[in-house]
Amino acid sequence: MPTFSAITALRALIAVLPVICCVAVAATTPFSIENRRTINNTAPATVDGRHTLNLTIANIAGWNDDEIVDSITIATGILAQCNVKVDTAELLRITVPESHQYFDTPRSRELARALALPKPTLYFTAGTRQVPAFDAEAIGRGNSRSRPELTDTVWIARGARDLGLVVAHELVHVLMNSGDHDNTPGNLMAEDTTPANSQLTEKQCAVIRASGARNGLLRPGVN
């Protein structure tokens, strides 16, 4: 039969176990949101707000916040062609280990799973470790079956040129749930992102609105 001192020691050990467990779990997710900022007044006055989009923006690599805000403002103006209004945009500055600051499927899945941010989410990264390497990559429903944590996300590498156009281009891929390009002169969805390519056709806009609403990314707004 255990002595009183043995029972006391056992109870003490059981009391400590949950603490040991929780510390171990916390150590496996070293990601922390350091700051939240709402980006206001990005929608042009001409947008009636019948189709609204809420964005979550994750700065995981120490980007200049103003550079990100400027890119969102440009992208918002482009989406206004389709009468899509960015209703809210929340910019989060997130501390992550250097290993997770790059777009890399296994680590990025871990990051997205741990943070569980509202979609669509734009991640501003230090770069990419994917092969082939792209300045930005959009992941919709069609190309996320083997990596569901990344559904409806965009990953943008530091140094991407024409940042506002890149943001708009990749968001359209997510909203349309399509990786298709349109190399018609002037079209935003041309493979090459340049200031000369910023237009969307009415057919593209119709797909953006229908697919975005069907997938819960666009919501009916108030005129």
Layout: helices, strands, pairs:
Blueprint lengths: L3 H24 L4 E8 L11 E9 L5 H15 L4 E12 L6 E2 L1 H11 L5 E5 L1 E2 L7 E4 L13 E5 L5 H14 L25 H13 L3 E3 L3
Parallel strand pairs: 2-3, 2-5, 4-6, 5-8
Antiparallel strand pairs: 1-3, 2-9, 7-8
Search tags:
alpha/beta, 2 domains, 7-stranded mixed β-sheet, 5 helices, 223 residues
What does this structure look like?
It is a single chain. This protein is an alpha/beta fold and 223 residues long. It has two domains: 30 residues; 189 residues, Collagenase (Catalytic Domain), CATH 3.40.390.10. It contains five helices and nine strands. Strands 1, 2, 3, 5, 7, 8 and 9 form a seven-stranded mixed sheet that branches. The chain has a two-stranded parallel ribbon with strand order 4-6. The N terminus is likely disordered.
How helix-rich are the residues, as a percent range? 25-40%
Euclidean distance between termini CA atoms: 77 Å
SSE-based structural type: alpha/beta
> Approximately how much beta-strand content do the residues carry?
15-25%
Averaged pLDDT, please?
87
CATH architecture of the largest domain: 3-Layer(aba) Sandwich
State the domain count.
Answer: 2
Short structural description:
With 223 residues, this protein is an alpha/beta fold. The chain folds into two domains: 1-30; 32-220, Collagenase (Catalytic Domain) (3-Layer(aba) Sandwich), CATH 3.40.390.10. It contains five helices and nine strands.
